[in-house]
C-alpha cells in the first residue's frame, strides 16, 4: 500500500478510533462549534448550514460503565451506558450542544439522565415518527423546522434556504464519494478491508465535511492506481445497528473473510441515495430521511423492504454469506435478527448471527464462530 493511501487512512482511522480527534481539535482551535447528535435520522445538513460541525456521538474508548450504571437499569444496552459513561467523565466536553431523539427507549434514557446533570449540553430533542407515510413526513418536517429554529436561537445564527441548499450539495458530494469507495469493493480483490471501510465511514461523521471530501477524493484517486490485494477466501456482508468499531470487523476478517458490503448506518444505508437539490430544502430533507433511504427497524411495517435491500446488496457485491451483529439487550435488533434468519433461510443465503457488548472484551469466541461459518461457506 503506497504512503499516500496509508497517511489518508491514518487520518480516518484516528477520527474513528477517538472522539476529540485532531480534525475536531483544529476546528475548535479556529473558533468552530461542534453539535453532537445520536442516530442517523438527525440531518447533518442543518448543523452544517449553520456553520457548525455535526458530530455523531459514540462510546468509543469507554472503559466500562461504572459511573453510568448508577443512572440506568441493567436492561439498557451497553452502547447507551458506555456513551453516558464518557459524558460523565467529561470526554464529550468538546461538544457545544447535543441533540437527542426517541430512536429507541434505551437511547431515550440518555436524554432523561443527561437532563438531571447541571450544565448538560442537551439543547434540543427531535421526536421521530414510528411509521412512514405522508402524515409522518409532515410531522417530521415540523420537527426539523423546530430543530432548525433551536439551532438558530442557541448558536445565534440564521439558516437561510440558500445555506441549507449549499449544505445539501456538500453532503450529497460526501455520499457520492463514499459510494465510489463502495464501488471499488465490488472488485474480486477489493483494495480496502471492511475495517478500513468502516473507519472511513465513521470518520465521515466526525470531522469537517470539506476536509473529509478532499481527503476522500485523494484516497479514491490513489486506490484506483494501487496494486490489487489478495482475493479473500470469502466475501461477507454485515448487517446491524450500533456498529462503529473497526476493531470488531478486524476480528471478523482475521479469519480470512473480507467484508465487502453492509446494511449499516455507518455504511451503505446512510449513503445510497441523495437528497433532492431542487425545491424547498427542508422538505427535501424530510422526504429523504424518512422516505427515500433504506429504512431502520424502528419504523413499523418495513421489514420486507429492509430484507429486500439486504438481499440486493448481497447479490450486487457477490457476498458468499451474511453476518448480523447485535448488541446484547437490544430488543429492536433481537427481533430483526430472528426475522432476517427466517428470510435468509428461505433465500438460501448463508447467515451467521452474533451478539456482543459495545466495548469488545475477550474475542476468542467471536473468532471461533466466524471461523466455523467460513468453513461452512467453503462447503456450499
Ligand atoms: S443498540 Fe439497540 S437498544 Fe441500544 S441504542 Fe441502538 S437500537 Fe437502542
Structure description:
With 380 residues, the protein is α/β, with parallel strands linked by helices. It has a domain at 18-158: Rossmann fold, CATH 3.40.50. 50% of the residues lie in helices and 12% in strands. The protein is built from 14 helices and eight strands. It has helices at 3-17, 22-29, 44-49, 78-88, 105-114, 134-155, 161-184, 194-203, 209-225, 246-253, 281-292, 303-316, 331-347, 364-379, and strands spanning 34-37, 53-56, 97-101, 122-126, 234-240, 257-263, 321-327, 351-356. The strands form two sheets. Strands 2-1-3-4 form a four-stranded parallel beta sheet, sandwiched between helices. The protein has a four-stranded parallel beta sheet with strand order 6-5-7-8, sandwiched between helices. Helix 1 crosses helix 8 (194-203), helix 7 packs parallel to helix 9 (209-225) and helix 8 (194-203) packs antiparallel against helix 10. The two termini are 33 Å apart. The structure holds iron/sulfur cluster. Iron/sulfur cluster is lined by residues 77, 79-80, 104, 106-107, 241-242, 327, 330, 332-333. Residues 77, 79-80, 104, 106-107, 241-242, 327, 330, 332-333 line the site of iron/sulfur cluster.
Amino acid at each position: 500500500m503506497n504512503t499516500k493511501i496509508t497517511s489518508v487512512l491514518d487520518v480516518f482511522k484516528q477520527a474513528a478510533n477517538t472522539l476529540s480527534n485532531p480534525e475536531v481539535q483544529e476546528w475548535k482551535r479556529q473558533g468552530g462549534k461542534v453539535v453532537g447528535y445520536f442516530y442517523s435520522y438527525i440531518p447533518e445538513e442543518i448543523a452544517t448550514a449553520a456553520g457548525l460541525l455535526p458530530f455523531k456521538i459514540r462510546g468509543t474508548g469507554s472503559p466500562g460503565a461504572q459511573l453510568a450504571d448508577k443512572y440506568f437499569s441493567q436492561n439498557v444496552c451497553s452502547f447507551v451506558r458506555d456513551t453516558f459513561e464518557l459524558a460523565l467523565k467529561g470526554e464529550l466536553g468538546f461538544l457545544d450542544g447535543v441533540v437527542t431523539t426517541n430512536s429507541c427507549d434505551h437511547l431515550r434514557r440518555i436524554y432523561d439522565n443527561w437532563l438531571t446533570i447541571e450544565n448538560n449540553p442537551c439543547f434540543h430533542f427531535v421526536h421521530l415518527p414510528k411509521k412512514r407515510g405522508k402524515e409522518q413526513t409532515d410531522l417530521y418536517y415540523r420537527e426539523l423546522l423546530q430543530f432548525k429554529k433551536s439551532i438558530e436561537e442557541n448558536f445565534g445564527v440564521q439558516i437561510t434556504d440558500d445555506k441549507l441548499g449549499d449544505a445539501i450539495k456538500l453532503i450529497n458530494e460526501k455520499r457520492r464519494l463514499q459510494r465510489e469507495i463502495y464501488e471499488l469493493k465490488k472488485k474480486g480483490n477489493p483494495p480496502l478491508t471492511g475495517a478500513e471501510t468502516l473507519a472511513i465511514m465513521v470518520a465521515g461523521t466526525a470531522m469537517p465535511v470539506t476536509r473529509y471530501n478532499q481527503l476522500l477524493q485523494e484516497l479514491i484517486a490513489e486506490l484506483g492506481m494501487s496494486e490489487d490485494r489478495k482475493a479473500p477466501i470469502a466475501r461477507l456482508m454485515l448487517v446491524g445497528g450500533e456498529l462503529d468499531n473497526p476493531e470488531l470487523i478486524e476480528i471478523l476478517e482475521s479469519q480470512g473473510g473480507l467484508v465487502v458490503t453492509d446494511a449499516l448506518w455507518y455504511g451503505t444505508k446512510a449513503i445510497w441515495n441523495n437528497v433532492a437539490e431542487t425545491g424547498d430544502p427542508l422538505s427535501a430533507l424530510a422526504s429523504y430521511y424518512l422516505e427515500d433511504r433504506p429504512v431502520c427497524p424502528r419504523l413499523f411495517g418495513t421489514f420486507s423492504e429492509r430484507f429486500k435491500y439486504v438481499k440486493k446488496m448481497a447479490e450486487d457485491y457477490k457476498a458468499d454469506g451474511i453476518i448480523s451483529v447485535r448488541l446484547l439487550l437490544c430488543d429492536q435488533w433481537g427481533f430483526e435478527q430472528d426475522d432476517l434468519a427466517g428470510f435468509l433461510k428461505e433465500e438460501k443465503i448463508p447467515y451467521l448471527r452474533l451478539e456482543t457488548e459495545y466495548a469488545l472484551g475477550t474475542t476468542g469466541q467471536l473468532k471461533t464462530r466466524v471461523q466455523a461459518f467460513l468453513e461452512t461457506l467453503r462447503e456450499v
